[in-house]
Write a structure and sequence with these properties.
Elements (H helix, E strand, L loop, with lengths): L3 H21 L3 E10 L9 E2 L4 E6 L6 E5 L5 E8 L1 E8 L6 E7 L4 E8 L29 H6 L22
Parallel strand pairs: 1-8
Antiparallel strand pairs: 1-2, 1-5, 3-4, 3-6, 6-7
Length: 173
C-alpha cells in the first residue's frame, strides 16, 4: 500500500509535468510577411519583390540565425521560432541594406510588411596619372651630318655653332 503523502506528491508531480508539456507546445512562434518596393518619384503603389534575402537573428540567442528568400510574390515565412527579440536584415539587389527590430510573442503568428526605397549613390575615384607634362628625365639628341654643317650658315666653324640645330637649344645673342 502506498502512503497518502507519496500519492499526493506523485499527483502534483504528474500535474506539473503535464502543464509544462502543454506550455512547451506554445513557446514557438511564426513570422511571415511581404517585401515590396516603391520609388520616391512615382505615385504608383508598391511593387512586390521576389528573391530578397531575409536574415533573422535572435537577440537572446546570438547563435540562432535563420535565412530565407522571398518567393515570386514577395512573401516570406519563418516557422518554429522561439519567442524573443529579433533583428531582421533585408538585402535586395539595387536597394540599400535594411534592418528591423521585431519582438515575437509565444504561440502567435506575427505579420510584417517591408517596403524598400531604392537609393542612388555616386562615387568618384581620383587616380594620379602622368599627364602631358612629365617630371621624368628628358633626353634630347640630334645628329648633324658634315654636309649640313657645310651648307648651313653658322657663327663659328665648330661644333658649338651647330648646337642651335638641335630642338630645345637656344643660342645666346
Amino acid at each position: 500500500m502506498v502512503p497518502r503523502r507519496e500519492l499526493v506528491l506523485s499527483i502534483v508531480l504528474l500535474t506539473t509535468t503535464l502543464c509544462g508539456l502543454t506550455h512547451a507546445q506554445n513557446v514557438t512562434t511564426t513570422l511571415k510577411g511581404t517585401v515590396s518596393a516603391i520609388a520616391e518619384e512615382t505615385s504608383t503603389g508598391p511593387e512586390l519583390l521576389p528573391d530578397v534575402t531575409l536574415t533573422l537573428v535572435n537577440r537572446d540567442l546570438s547563435t540562432s540565425i535563420r535565412t530565407t528568400t522571398s518567393d515570386a510574390s514577395g512573401n516570406f515565412i519563418f516557422r518554429d521560432l522561439p519567442a524573443g527579440n529579433y533583428k531582421l536584415i533585408i538585402e535586395a539587389k539595387g536597394f540599400p541594406r535594411a534592418e528591423k527590430e521585431i519582438s515575437l510573442p509565444a504561440g502567435r503568428t506575427s505579420l510584417v510588411e517591408i517596403v524598400l526605397t531604392p537609393s542612388v549613390s555616386e562615387a568618384v575615384t581620383v587616380r594620379q596619372e602622368e599627364g602631358l607634362l612629365s617630371a621624368g628625365d628628358t633626353v634630347t639628341s640630334n645628329t648633324v651630318r658634315a654636309e649640313k654643317l657645310e651648307e648651313l650658315p653658322m657663327r663659328s666653324d665648330n661644333y658649338q655653332g651647330a648646337l642651335p640645330l638641335t630642338p630645345g637649344i637656344v643660342r645666346d645673342l
